[in-house]
Design goal:
single chain, alpha/beta, 9-stranded mixed sheet, 19% strand
């Protein structure tokens, strides 16, 4: 077996529920060596509690956890599930996400992958403070919408994807204008990804004997009620799990090197003059194969 991939997760967990699914998927994946989780974008104390509670449920309080910069309106969709969790009880809580990213990367003997599944404030802050981190790390990024190929009509073509649109300046400072090697997972592959009811029910059943999956499902059910989602159907879109999958394997995904530039409307364009070269996932070979993998991985079958 290959040595596990050293990983940092930079996440806006606690808003859409897919970040929680992505964190659970990481924690269930022996191919990944999670060393740090950083929170970004919204209500940072609440979001950091969400991450801490899931890490604790998995028995992984060895993973360092660092709050980043917020500023946008709070999206506390699973606050009922978080309850009165005491963040000060988390044993590896650090002070600052940007500093934690820098320290983790610069003190590593191996190149680290930073999986970015939220806005890019922490990356921008870390890179501006220490550009040298790009030499010992690479980025895997959920963001953009290139051809709108997998969105099934629910996301308009030539429109800005949220992780870029929520802070275009952070995207430019943290991604486009950096020396980082970038692997991009746009909506073309991460959009329209959801587990149909039989798969979801299998994950729900696994939670009866697995503390992490039990807490994931419990938080998901709170999110459903808060967001008035169809409670007894499939999952909501699980965009960020595609980023985790790409960190594990490139099998089943088709990539192409493209110069990507986000214009002032946050639309991702293929632009040879202004774009940054990125390895972009554009299509699936078999999306059903991914669904089977995700379900089996969360259920502890593989």
């Amino acid at each position: 077996m290959k040595k596990p991939l050293p990983l940092i997760l930079d996440t806006d967990i606690g808003s859409d529920i897919d970040d929680s699914w992505a964190l659970a998927m990481i924690l269930k994946s022996p191919e990944l060596d999670l060393r740090l989780v950083t929170t970004t974008a919204y209500n940072i104390p609440y979001q950091t509690k969400v991450a801490a509670k899931l890490l604790e449920a998995a028995g992984r309080t060895d993973v360092k956890l660092a709050p980043g910069r917020g500023g946008e309106p709070a999206l506390d969709s699973v606050a009922e599930w978080v309850g009165d969790y005491d963040l000060t009880s988390y044993p590896n809580l650090l002070d600052n996400a940007a500093d934690a990213i820098i320290d983790t990367v610069m003190n590593s003997d191996e190149k680290i992958t930073i999986l970015c599944i939220g806005c890019f404030k922490n990356l921008a802050d870390a890179y501006e403070k220490c550009p040298e981190i790009s030499k010992n790390s690479r980025l895997a990024v959920i963001g953009g919408n290139i051809y709108n190929g997998a969105c099934n009509g629910w996301h308009p073509a030539l429109s800005g994807e949220w992780n870029i649109r929520c802070d275009l300046d952070a995207w430019r400072r943290g991604i486009e204008k950096t020396d980082w090697e970038v692997e991009l997972l746009p909506l073309d592959v991460s959009g329209g990804v959801l587990l149909d009811t039989p798969y979801f029910e299998k994950v729900r059943k696994a939670g009866e004997n697995d503390p992490l999956i039990r807490e994931l499902v419990a938080s998901n059910d709170v999110w459903f009620r808060t967001e008035n989602w169809n409670y007894y159907g499939p999952t909501s879109p699980l965009f960020d799990t595609v980023g985790v999958y790409a960190c594990i394997t490139h099998e089943n995904l088709n990539f192409q090197m493209l110069p990507i530039y986000a214009n002032d409307e946050s639309v991702s364009l293929i632009d040879p003059e202004r774009g940054k070269m990125m390895n972009v996932a554009l299509t699936w070979d078999d999306k059903e194969r991914f669904y089977k993998f995700l379900t089996a991985r969360l259920c502890g079958e593989i």
